[in-house]
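# step 3/5: fold
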Amino acid sequence: MNPDLNAARIGLSRGWIEFLATFRNPQELLFGYLFFPAIFLAMALFFLDGDMDGGISVGAVHMAAGIALIIAILGVMSVAQVLATEREDGTLLRSRAVPHGMIEYTVGKIVHVLLVSLLSLTLMVIPAVLFVDGFTLAGPVALITLVWVCLLGLLALAPIGAILGALLSNPKTGVGLAMLPIMAILLISGIYFPLEYIPAWLQTIAMVFPLHWIGAGLRAAVFSEELLASGPFEAVQLPLVAGVLLLWAGLGFLLAQRVLRRMARRQSGSRVQAAQEEAMKRGY
């Protein structure tokens, strides 16, 4: 068998095993999969019972925003934390030392992230469709739109997470601090409320980043075009959403490749040992 293909096959198995391992960790199961769906569903059912102008359900908008938040967490925070942690504990260095090890490592992480994302988003979408008034996926076209928006959203945000993971020196506090600007962009992105509610200069900033387009694509999947046109949110052209997210994914991939190669060249046993000693001093 071709060595690269064999490494990719091992990576597929590795990603599946890492995904199954999350079910053996009660903390991962509770906070990784169940916490956000339960919080967003409870808020949509008990605190956000009402409609916006045009009849758009506030709870449905809130659930769509929750899906966008999970995409941001998975694409940026999770990728950054995994990469930074495994850079510090020597996993990346060991993978690089094995022939075709980086192919195995990369495929494994992609499979792991995709499976975790699929389960996390499913746990958000199914309860929303069943219990939240106004959150509908009317037919296969809407479902397909939801799937490709989530997938392109992850592809657009994952390079940002990879770059952060390569640059951050402290995988614990650094990732949390790096998430603060992401949350700020999320708040002004027009996901929770229409862009017209914020100043024009903030609208311009929000439309540069992928989170705005992820939210617009999610609303296009959940609400009909007629409902969006009559409500406070503007209808969006889905080809434009796809184009912006693909542009972010492509440019982010090119930049992430350069950053990751530079990080890999700088990795050595002495650097890993120094990082581990620093982690022991921090107490984790």
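# step 4/5: annotate
The mean pLDDT is 80.
# step 5/5: archive (pending)
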